[in-house]
């Protein structure tokens, strides 16, 4: 059975999983969740994803949520095909994990807050709070200063080697 990706096509976390599946040439079927009608908060959905968030995958009955965990699972399971996404050398892998942690802890919360104001609110007919946007843009600048320091020491946030393409 083809891997099923339960998500929302415009949602960043769903796109992360979709991008990883594509890099690995893993066929998948996107099962679009009806956000507008709060399908992700329904008992059927939260029975699988108790936080009521997309995405999750169902691979022949193996269900997994949290986009980064899904991405790692796919990258390891399908390591022999497509783009090599996770280094195998322990030190290179540790630096890759450092990059993943940076993305999760520093980049994502700030950019999500900006996207929430500038993209998601207008989609619901609401106006962005420009004070919040300004605050978050300032916070982002501080984060990007740290990125500059890291990128002065290594080629990419995830290490020195780019993913190996097939
Ligand atoms: N840590 C989770 C976050 C998932 C997440 O924030 N999903 C958003 C869409 S990108 C969502 O479902 N938001 C609806 C909600 O929180 O009610 C993951 O990486 O899968």
Automatic annotation (TrEMBL):
<dbReference type="InterPro" id="IPR004045">
    <property type="entry name" value="Glutathione_S-Trfase_N"/>
</dbReference>
<dbReference type="GO" id="GO:0004364">
    <property type="term" value="F:glutathione transferase activity"/>
</dbReference>
<dbReference type="GO" id="GO:0005737">
    <property type="term" value="C:cytoplasm"/>
</dbReference>
<feature type="domain" description="GST C-terminal">
    <location>
        <begin position="89"/>
        <end position="166"/>
    </location>
</feature>
<dbReference type="Pfam" id="PF02798">
    <property type="entry name" value="GST_N"/>
</dbReference>
<dbReference type="GO" id="GO:0043295">
    <property type="term" value="F:glutathione binding"/>
</dbReference>
<dbReference type="InterPro" id="IPR010987">
    <property type="entry name" value="Glutathione-S-Trfase_C-like"/>
</dbReference>
<feature type="domain" description="GST N-terminal">
    <location>
        <begin position="1"/>
        <end position="82"/>
    </location>
</feature>
<protein>
    <recommendedName>
        <fullName>glutathione transferase</fullName>
        <ecNumber>2.5.1.18</ecNumber>
    </recommendedName>
</protein>
<dbReference type="InterPro" id="IPR036282">
    <property type="entry name" value="Glutathione-S-Trfase_C_sf"/>
</dbReference>
<keyword id="KW-0808">Transferase</keyword>
<dbReference type="InterPro" id="IPR036249">
    <property type="entry name" value="Thioredoxin-like_sf"/>
</dbReference>
<dbReference type="InterPro" id="IPR040079">
    <property type="entry name" value="Glutathione_S-Trfase"/>
</dbReference>
<dbReference type="GO" id="GO:0006749">
    <property type="term" value="P:glutathione metabolic process"/>
</dbReference>
